[in-house]
Each structure stands twice: as structure tokens, then as C-alpha cells.
Amino acid sequence: MGNVSLNGEWRIDWKDWNPTNDSPNKEFTIVPGHWNNSAFEKYPAGFARLSLTILVPENTKTLYLQNGVTRNAFEVLVDEKTIYKSGIIGESFSSEIPHLNIQTVALPDVKNNQIQLSLKISCFHYHNCGVATPYSLGTHSGISKSYLGAIGRDIFVLTSLLTLAFFHFVLYIFWRDEKTHILFAAVCFLAAMRLLSIGETRFIYNYLPLGVYETMVRINGISFVLVYLSFVLYVKEIYNSEKYKLVYRINFFVASLLFFALPLNLLTFSKFLAFHLVLSLLALFGLLYPIIHGVLLKKPGSRLFLFSVIATMFLFSLDILTEFAKKGTAYLAQYGFLVFGLSQALFIADRMIENFKNKERLKQEKESAEAKVNFKTTFLSTMSHEIRTPMNGVLGMAQLLQQTNLSEEQKEYLNLIQFSGDNLLLLINDILDLSKLESGQFELHLEPVPLEKFMKDFINIFKTQTDPNKLKIELDFLNPPPAFLITDQRRFAQVLTNLLSNAVKFTEKGSITVLVETIILKKDMVRLKVSVKDTGIGIPDDRMGILFQPFSQVHSHLTEKTIGTGLGLAITKKLIEEMGGSISVQSVYGRGSNFTFQFTAQIGPESSESEQHSNTKETIPKRSSDSPLAEKYPLKILVADDDPISQKVSSLFLKKLGYTNLQAENGEKTLDIVRSESPDLLFVDIQMPDMDGITVAKCIRQSKTIAKQPVIIALTANVMEEEKHRCLSAGMDDFMTKPLLLRDLDFMIRKWAKRDLSPSNR
Q: Which residues carry this modification: 4-aspartylphosphate (predicted)?
């Protein structure tokens, strides 16, 4: 009628392999289960004989027996004849050679409709002894079908887990930032390997020689620990928070305890392994805390994850039941692995979909933010150009008008125009500087700066602008400074200008002292500390909080003192932070203020001194009072600009310097004049209607019909740093910004005339 599981009471003869039938003290034990007596008293490690009489119908064909998991060595006997052996039974630890094998064997022909089945079992190498899983009796086809079904289930679970492991390993190769894939692959792979020795058929033992049982028991323990550790790391990667740290540490500690038991003898190790499984299950309950918390927080896939963990805990429970030889549970363990693997695959898929959605949203937000930044930059660049172009005419004509004969009243009006234009230009520069600092487009241009000379020259400029009888400006070096300091000279000057300008603005009488201190950090590094101390009106305590905020003016009630943008200190703070330093302020209202900033810089080489002096001489042009500049440097100059006011200003400036310049109002005409007139200097506006200045420069540099290459200088109202790089990379030699000042034009002509008109980008 099919296979029969030989479960139930078997006769047990403790420490007697050859009992007689008339033995007065017959004991019975339950199979499968740990061997014990009729009173359920557990037998220790040792040896015993289990016997069973099986009644069968007449004319029964050949029957087959499939043994269950029997620890540690055993022989199967029918009618006192051995039909199968697994390992070598013994009556002591040393005489026994354990082995675990599940096989199907044919029974001898049935006599008298009875089968006298006996098992000789010895168990000295494991703490749980007896028969752990059922013995089955049936026909060849029935037993074979049952065995192949068990093998098929093991292979199905094994290949499913290996497929999941391989798939998520491949995912990790493509998404290295997602460590959950590699950890989940590790859990699946280790679980699959563990199935080879704890699956329904334990088929790995069929191919192992005698004498490796002890090694396999230890490997099984290690494999459990590795699966456990991988699983904890997997949970930790998903729910990585400081509040869960104690839970993970407890699990790591519990998992690692088994490694300390590895040197123990096998019997003691097996006892510790059972204890370790129970302890691991209890520690695993702690992992429910971050997972349930994730469910409450509605994290992606958290419910699936909770389900899979419960399945895993059920799996570990089955492992424990197997270790304690409880009936009817061991063969179900593999399905716990499969449920875990599939549910986790669904969880990771749900998590990946959510991550892709988040990345797409972040990508869109990034693109939107970049578009806003680009719009802001374009807007500021355009507005700068549009404002600076008319200012070129206002300030340029004001400079020319100042050099004519004017009445005192006219001079007063002209000074007001010049003053208002300068403040408008200051506002535009401050807004652009703040924009570049906030958008991250700011770059430092490091160069050797002669610190002592630079500071003295800087202070002297401010001394010439103040009345020495009312306000004294002093410079004091607290210790000898290095000859050269590697820093951004322009930005350093801008910081000092902002601080000294404020000090002068709010100090009508008294003194302003600039203290400079250098602190040696190591051989070639110093910390520069600069204090600007004044005896002015000071800062109220309730206004200190907005001191470095943009568009904030502390003394807004003082009409003549509020000229400015309210951006100076905000820009100063950001500049110093970009230089890697900090700024602080101390002030007593009515008595003065002390602004202190410091930053770290590298000491420049002494060899920079001669080069720096020569550069300094070049950057300070001196007008010849007895002859025009054109007599000293006779040059042919072409100005290309589409704005008629800018053309007029540049023409008048060049006339003041003694030049009769050539003019072009568009790109095509500029190229024609360069070919026909061969100018020495070309000042070209960047924005022209038919062909912009960048295109003109590229055409000139790439042309083979232009015999003489001119020095090309960009003339633009766009002061953004990227605009300068764009001009220089197009083949231009220098860069000038509008509004054009007479002294800047004078300087540029001298600079390139002294270089024998050798453009740098030919």
C-alpha cells in the first residue's frame, strides 16, 4: 500500500548488542527521538541495540528499507544478519568510527510473515544519540520515489539559493554602493552550502570517507555562525543607526562564541553547539527591534523584511529541534531557507524600486537646482554687462571732464557724479562676488606676496585719503614677518580694504591700528593674524548678530555713514573662510571695535624677491608728464566695439595718450582692418552683433592670411571668472573690464609695449 514510517516504540537493550528474548527487563524507546527508557529517562552516550518485529502479509514481495539519521555509527540487521553498515560501531570513544549516511537497502525474503529488524548503534562522538529521523519500509518503486523526491527537494532549494546568490552578486558588481546585494548573496550562498550537510538526504555524506565526521560537525557549526553573521551584517546595512548598535553588538558577540569552543573535544563541542543554537535564537529576537521600528516608520519593504526574519527565526528553531533529535521537523529546515531567500529577494526588489524613484527625484532636483544656478549666473552676467556698458560712458566722460577747466560749482557737481558712479560700481562688484562665493565658483589664485612691503603700501594708500590731524592710521608688526607669503593677493587686499574702509567710515577722529602677527606652525607654514582696531563709534550689542549678514548695515540711523551695499563684511567673512581662516570681532559701543582675522599660509621662497620687485614696478605705471605715451611707445591700436558711447570714450582716452586709433563696430570689419592695417594692439568687445569677440580672436589666431598677429585684449562688461578663462582659451592675450578707466588703459599699453608686443597665445 506504499511506504511505512517505522515510528513508535522499539525495544532497546542498553549496552547489550546480543540480548536474549527471555530477558526479564525489557525497555522501550521512541523512534525517532533521543534514546531513553520506558520512563523517558535519557540514556547517556554509549551503545545499545534497538529491535522491532514487523508483521507483513503473505506473498509479500521484496521490501526495501531506507534508514534515517542515526548517530553515530550503526549496523542494520535482519534476522541477525547484517545487511548495511554506516561507520564502525564500538563500545568506546576510541573504538568507534562515526559516519552519517542515508541509503536504501533490500531486505531478505520474508519468513513466517515477520521481519526481525535490529539496529546496533554506538554513540560516543555526539551529545544527542539515537535515531533522529524516521526509517521507512516499502517497495522498491515506493522507496525510490520517496528518496528521489527528497533529493529533488534538496536540489531545488539548493539551486534556488545559489541562483539568488549569483543574481545579487551580479547586481553588486553593477551597483557597488549597494552593499545589501553582496551581503544577501553571502547569506544565500552560505545557506546553500549548509544544506549539503543538513538537508533532507544529507547527500554530501554519501561521498565522504570514514574519519571525517568530526571535521564535518565542526564545519556545520562554523557554517551556522557564518550564515548568522552574514544575516546580522545584512540587517545592519539596511537599518544602520546608532540606536540599534547595542542589538548588533550582542548578536556579533553571541555568534563569535562558537569559535572559542572549536578546540574542545567533539562531545563537549556538540553540547556547546546545542547551547549556542538556543542562545543565537534568543539574540536573534533582538533584531526584531530595528525591523519593527522600520515597519512603524513605513520604510520601503519593511513588512516583507519582517516576514522574512520571522521565517529565518523559524528556520533556526528547526535547526535546534534537529540538534535535539525531535521527530518530524528536520526535513522541513530547507524550506525555511527557501522562504527566507524568496521573501528577501522581494524585499530587495521593492527597496531597489524605491531607491530608483528616489535617485530619479534627486536627479530632477539636482537638474532644477543647476538650472536655477545657471540662470542666476547668466542673469548676473547679463545685468553686469548691461549696467557696466552705460557706466563706461558715465565714468569715462567724468574722468575726461575732470581734466578740463571747471568752476568750483561744476567741480562739486562732477565729484558727486563720480562718487555716485563709483558706489554703483562697488555695489555691482559686491553682488557678483557674493554670488560667486555662494555658488561655489570662487577660486583662489595663489602667488608670492611680499608681506611687509604689501602691508606698508596698503596702509599708505589709506593715509593719503584721511586727514592726519584728525585720524591716525598706524601699522605695527608684532614679530618679524616672512619675506614672502603664498596667498591670493587680490582677495587679501579686498579683505583689508573692507575692514579699513569700515574703520575709516566710522572713526571721525582718533586712531586706527593694524596689528600683524605671524605664528610659525612648521618649517614652511605660518598662521597670519591681522587685527584692525579703531576708536570709532563701536557696535551695539543687539546688532552684533547681524554684523556678517548680507545687506545688513549696523548703523542705519547714520545717514552719511550708510553709503555702501551692506555686503562688505558678509563678503569679507566668506573670503576668509575660503582662504581657510576665520574672523572675529570685539566691540564696545561708543569706544571702538577690533576686527581680527587669521588664516594659514605657506611661506614663499626668497628667490621670489627680485621677480616680485620687477612685477611690482610694472604694475604701477607712471605717467610721463613731459611727453604723451604715444611718443614713447608708437603703436597702431584698433578698438572693436559696437557701442557708440564706448567707442567715443576709448577714442578720447587714446587721444589723451597721444594715439589716433582705428575703430570697428562689428566682427567682419575688425577682421578686414586687421588684414589691411596690421595693428599692434587690438581691444575687442566680447559682445558684438554679427560676430562676438571670442569668434574674432579664434579667426585671427587660425588665419593664415594675416601676416602680423596683433596682441588681442578682451574688452568686456562681464567680470565673471569663467568669462576670463573663455577669452584666454580662445587665443586672447589679456582681459580688461568695463567701465574703462584711463589709468587701466595706460597700464595695459605699457605692459604689452614693454614685452615687444609678443602675444602669448600665437
A: 685
The Cα–Cα gap between 527 and 516 comes to 11
Please give the C-alpha separations between residue 631 and each of 16, 206, 353, 650, in angstroms, as whole numbers: 130, 107, 76, 19
Neighbours of 631 (CB within 10 A): 11
CATH fold of 447-603 reads Heat Shock Protein 90 (3.30.565)
Q: Considering the domain 144-359 in this protein, what is its CATH number?
A: 1.20.1070
pLDDT value for 135: 92
User: C-alpha 689: how far from its chain's center?
Assistant: 46
**Is the CB of residue 723 less than 8 Å from the CB of residue 686?**
yes
First CA to last CA distance, the chain: 101
Cα–Cα nearest to 490, from 458, 514, 537: 458
pLDDT for position 163: 87
Dihedrals φ, ψ of 660, to 5°? -105, 105
Amino acid letter for position 729: S
Which pLDDT belongs to residue 119?
95
CATH superfamily of 4-138: Galactose-binding domain-like (2.60.120.260)
Spatial contact of 580 and 600, defined as CB atoms under 8 Å apart: yes
* Ramachandran area for residue 268 (φ above 0: left; ψ -120 to 50: alpha; else beta): alpha
Low-confidence ranges of the chain (pLDDT < 70): 1, 23-24, 312, 315-316, 318-338, 340-341, 351, 373, 376-377, 380-382, 384-385, 388-389, 419-420, 422-423, 426-443, 549-568, 606-627, 719-721, 755-762
Amino acid occupying residue 735 = F
- CA pair distance 719, 568, nearest whole angstrom: 18
> Between β-strands 471-477 and 104-106, what pairing exists: parallel, antiparallel or unpaired?
unpaired
- In Å, what is the CA distance from 355 to each residue of 252, 344, 347, 362, 582? 28, 16, 12, 10, 40
Yes or no: say if 685 and 641 are a contact pair by the CB < 8 Å rule. Answer: yes
What order do you get walking across the sheet with 8-14 strand by strand? 27-31, 8-14, 46-55, 114-123, 73-78, 81-86
Interatomic CA distance for residues 594 and 532, integer angstroms: 6
Q: What distance in Å separates the CA atoms of residue 659 and residue 689, rounded to the nearest whole number?
A: 27
Cell triple for 150: 527528497
Q: Who's near 653: CB < 8 A, 6+ residues apart?
A: 396, 400, 740, 742, 745
Residue type, 283: A
pTM of the model: 0.52
Return left, alpha or beta for 257; rule: phi > 0 is left, psi -120 to 50 is alpha, else beta. alpha
Which three-class secondary structure string do you get for 673-712?
Answer: HHHHHCCCEEEEECCCCCCCHHHHHHHHHHCCCCCCCCEE
238 vs 513: CA distance, rounded Å: 59
- DSSP helix/strand/coil, 148: helix
Cβ(159)–Cβ(188) below 8 Å:
no
Write the burial class of residue 621 (CB in 10 Å: 0-12 exposed, 13-18 middle, 19+ buried): middle
Q: What is the length of the chain?
A: 762
Handedness of CA 604, 610, 611, 615 (dihedral sign): positive
Q: What is the CA radius of gyration of the chain?
A: 46
Q: What are phi and psi of 177, to 5 degrees?
A: -75, -10
Contact in structure between 721 and 702 (CB atoms under 8 Å): no
Whether the CB-CB separation of 514 and 474 falls below 8 Å is answered with yes
Q: Which CATH number fits domain 629-754: 1.20.1250.20, 3.40.50.2300, 3.50.50.60, 3.90.1150.10?
A: 3.40.50.2300
**How is residue 317 written as a grid cell?**
528553531
* Residue-range domain boundaries for the chain: 4-138, 144-359, 389-439, 447-603, 629-754
Give residues with Cβ within 8 angstroms of 472, minimum separation 6: 510, 511, 512
